Amino acid sequence: MPPAPPQMPEQTTSPTETVTATAATSERPAGRAVWLRRTLNLSQKEAVASATMTATGDNFFNAFAIFLHATSLQMGWLTAIPQLFGAMCQLMSAWLGNYLPRKPMVVVAAVAQTLVVMGLVVLAVLRPDNSVQWLITLAVFYFGCINFIQPQWRAWMGSLVPQRRRGAFFASRTRLTMVASLVVFAGGGALLSLSERADLVWLGFAALFTTAAIGRAFSSRLLYLMHDPDPRPHRDRRKGFFQSMKQLYGSLQDKTFRDYSFFVAGMQGVVAISAPFFAVYMLRDLQFTYMQYSLNAIASIVTQFISLSFWGRFSDRFGNRIVMQFCCMTIPIIPVLWMISPDPMYLILVQVVSGLVWSAFSLSTANYLYDIRPQKSDFAVYAAVQSALGAISVSIGAVFGGLIAASTPFLFEKLGFLDNWLSSQLFVVFFVTAILRFAVALWFLPRANDPIARRRPKVLQLILRVSRFNAITGVSLDWLSVTRKSKLPPAPDDQDIATTSDANHTDSSPDDTRTDNNPDDRPTP
Hints:
72% of the residues lie in helices and 2% in strands. With 525 residues, the protein is mainly alpha-helical. A hairpin with a 3-residue loop joins strand 1 and strand 2 (474-479). Helix 9 packs parallel to helix 15, helix 11 (290-318) packs antiparallel against helix 12 (320-330) and helix 11 (290-318) runs parallel beside helix 14 (344-372).
């Protein structure tokens, strides 16, 4: 018989080696938990710091322009040019994100925005003869920085926040942003009112923008300290980005989506006709104090925050189409309500109604876009098309509104009876926007299909987040990512989106470098 094979000596592991192996195995998860916890904590602090900027910077541009004696046409340009430039910056950011690391892009843009806000401080102090032109230029770069940051920040957060924690994390972040913004916004109105009594309004604006700059500087520092788990761009995404750009035109071949996009863009455009002039009406014609102006805007903002959850439940039960129909019938009435009485308390009530309607519009149109997207299609492409159309429409509408407002003195001079009918020349602008809003609504209503609602996450589970708000105009909803509800299998037509997120275990796919669903960022009264 052949000899038995030699027995191999049994491998033994010392207790020291066992402990070392166990420690090495747990070191990486433990290390990840440390930087993840620290980064999420920094992100919450960053939300408060950046809210200090948006509450002061975003919401007082129109009031500052009125203080600088901007003409009606200049008020239109102040809305139009930053919108168009901001949309271009989003697309440029999405393209550059395929070649450059996103964290440095976000931090550099945040620092640049800090310098822009400091420029507003200098402008408030010096007030040169061409102050309004300088304000428009600074506003272009201000909103350009915001829009440049947005796609990269969205991708960064998508790859950072664990999917199971996103709902709680972003709900908490939204609450922090809301509270900080409203407190600072109300404080800004009080500060300007006090400076107005002392005939030092320029000093009030300088202090206001200094607060915004300090907030953005802290925000930039916190962004720099945050960890990026996916710091380098991936080559395989470059092809996907250009392929998505080619699909932009092709998506408009879908009639349902085309009708929807023209409706949303058209409504945003006709709303932009009057958007800059509600502040002019309150501060110049009605002689509101800055505190009254702020409280009027806060009424709409708070109403939108409160009513979002109600409209989310209502849409889930009855569908988004019926909510959109309600909005089509009520949005044209809002400018007319402003013409009934100049009483400050009455106008606050109008803003409550406005907030209720615009929260319904923002949420229902965002959900409707998701529902009508064809199966196995890239949702980011559809959001980008709607965003681009909206930005162009808002720019055209704002300029058109400025031209109407600039021509009203001549119109009142030629038609003397208008003085007896209209207490403010701006009512012509309000009347035109009301008629055009009604026309857009009538065009869309027979074309609004009732698609089968797709299974999608709850409002606070990252589908939508409140990106920022603007005085008079309220909150802006932003699509952050598309994920499926926990413990529920994805619907067949949602499988492509769900698997994209799960396969990469992050949301930093090309879907994340998309443009905003609400291009104007300003649902308006």
